[in-house]
Amino acid sequence: MNRRTLSTLALAFATSVIAVAAHAAEVKNIVIVHGALADGSGWRKATDILEDRGFNVTIVQQPITSLTDDIAATRRVLDLQDGPVLLVGHSYGGIVITEAGNDDRVAGLVYVAAFQPDKGESLLSLASSKPASGMNIRETKDGKFLYIDPAAFPNDFGADLPKDEAEFLAKSQVFAAKEAFAAKVGDPAWKTRKSWAIVATADRSINPELERAMASRAGSDVTEIEASHAVFASQPEKVADVIAKAANALSE
């Protein structure tokens, strides 16, 4: 075998390795961590849109009993994925993905009207720094869990949803442990991974100025959408566009 043949084979091998690596880096898995005081069912429309575009979408139904429990629930779903993952978090889900996103399978992060904490911060510390306009949070009788007053829920959480949808969300909301809201975050994944953020400009559950400030600090690619806190349900096409844009950017 002469030198030219060896060179040709070496080039062919190198090209095939690069092609395999590029294919392996393609991000087709989307894992969504829903927020507190809701569950993953509100993501149905956005999920359908993303799957129609060729993505594999899985939604974590974390218990919201503690940040540790919720990170563990997210990791169990990450374990099921074949290939790199784009991790998406809404609201409190942003707290969860900030730590769970340190998993080696996570290629990038998308924060959807979400908390985007730095090390040592908690949901409570961030929320109190720039209070939201909707402040109708109640404690359960045992003092361990929080929920939104059902009468105020439609206006505070999903003012741009059809009334019957917002009222159903109020009835089906998942109560959040106070412990989860008070938990401090460790090393944030957004410091080592690319991130994207959606600011819901009519959000009454998280102050939009806080969403902007957190995204700016993290260097996230920001998209602003005129929507309530339930932007994932009221504007599913626009939210899916941002998620798809992030996945495609990570695949380049």
TrEMBL record:
A Pfam family of the record is Abhydrolase_6
Q: Which residues form the AB hydrolase-1 domain?
A: 30-242
* Annotated keywords: Signal
**Superkingdom of origin:** Bacteria
Q: Which InterPro entries match?
A: AB_hydrolase_1, AB_hydrolase_fold, Sec-Metab_Biosynth_Hydrolase
Annotated signal sequence is 1-24
Say if the entry is tagged with keyword Glycosyltransferase. no
Spell out the protein name for this chain.
Answer: Pimeloyl-ACP methyl ester carboxylesterase
- Lineage per the UniProt record: Bacteria, Pseudomonadati, Pseudomonadota, Alphaproteobacteria, Hyphomicrobiales
